[in-house]
Amino acid sequence: MLAGVGLMMVCCSSSSAMTMMGSGEETPAAAATGAAAATGAGAGAGADDDRTFHASTLPEPTDATILNPGSSLARGEKWEPPNKSYDMTLQGDNNLCINEPGKARACLMSHQVGGTATTDFQGDGNLCVNGQPGVKCHMSHDSDVPPSQHRLILHNNGDVYVDHGTGESNRSMIYDHP
Known about the structure:
Blueprint: E1 3-11, E2 16-21, E3 52-53, E4 56-57, E5 64-67, E6 72-74, E7 78-79, E8 87-90, E9 96-100, E10 103-107, E11 118-121, E12 127-130, E13 135-138, E14 151-155, E15 160-163, E16 172-175
Antiparallel strand pairs: 1-2, 1-10, 3-4, 5-14, 6-11, 7-8, 8-9, 9-10, 11-12, 12-13, 14-15, 15-16
């Protein structure tokens, strides 16, 4: 069902089940939904169109929500793709989960960070839940790319990934929808 090893966990209605991660896709400008949506994609120099992102081609804005580094999510807020088939929500218990209507699909298991947490898409490409005194991150950085050359993609097809601008084969999959 799932490929790879990661920090996100598949969630059942009663408990977390198995570790998950996969590959992903990318997107250019931020078409994010929710209170903490980011804007702009920052195409690389000499871009042919607004979907060119360095060595990557990002999805159409109608196919994916694209978030820039620095995007932040407070408890109770959510990000979702344009078709609203699922959302990424920072729950009241500080657990960052990918949910489809009626059930959680995947969770970061960040409920132990404590305090009033926020989710931050960092300039290094990591997606982190920061609380007091802890932090829990999905390690999706690529040390071979410059800071802030990353985009978080929530695709209509259910995939969630970080595009580093280095081509499709180098995406960091957060959730690979079955």
